[in-house]
């Protein structure tokens, strides 16, 4: 009898402690809002990363083109 009561109490305690674990139930609107918020946060991160990469590559491309034009100009002046 004592073991049965202890078993029931242990089971109840385990059930109550596990009730706070896991995914919380959300309404469809709450779920949609959470998904939209995470998508927007992800999109902003990707956009800022791609903009930074593009800016860095742009500077490199511009400098390469300037160097190329300088070399062409120097070669043209040597021919004359």
What's a concise summary of this model?
The protein has 80 residues and is an all-alpha fold. The chain has one domain.
Folded structure, characterized:
By secondary structure, the protein is mostly helical. The chain has one domain. Helices cover 88% and strands 0% of the residues. It is built from two helices and no strands. The radius of gyration is 33 Å and the shape is rod-shaped. The termini are far apart. The relative contact order is 0.04.
Number of strands: 0
Percent of residues in β-strands: under 5%
Q: What's the total helix number? A: 2
Distance between the termini: 111 Å
The helix/strand series, from N terminus to C terminus, equals HH
Q: Any idea how many domains? A: 1
Binned, the helix content reads: over 70%
The chain-level mean pLDDT equals 83
Query: Which spans of ≥5 residues are poorly predicted at pLDDT below 50?
Result: none
Radius of gyration: 33 Å
Sheet/helix structural class? mainly alpha
């Amino acid at each position: 009898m004592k073991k049965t009561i202890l078993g029931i109490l242990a089971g109840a305690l385990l059930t109550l402690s596990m009730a706070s674990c896991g995914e919380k139930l959300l309404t469809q609107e709450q779920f949609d809002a959470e998904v939209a918020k995470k998508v927007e946060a992800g999109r902003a991160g990707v956009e800022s990363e791609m903009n930074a990469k593009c800016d860095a590559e742009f500077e490199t491309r511009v400098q390469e083109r300037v160097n190329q034009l300088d070399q062409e100009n120097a070669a043209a002046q040597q021919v004359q």
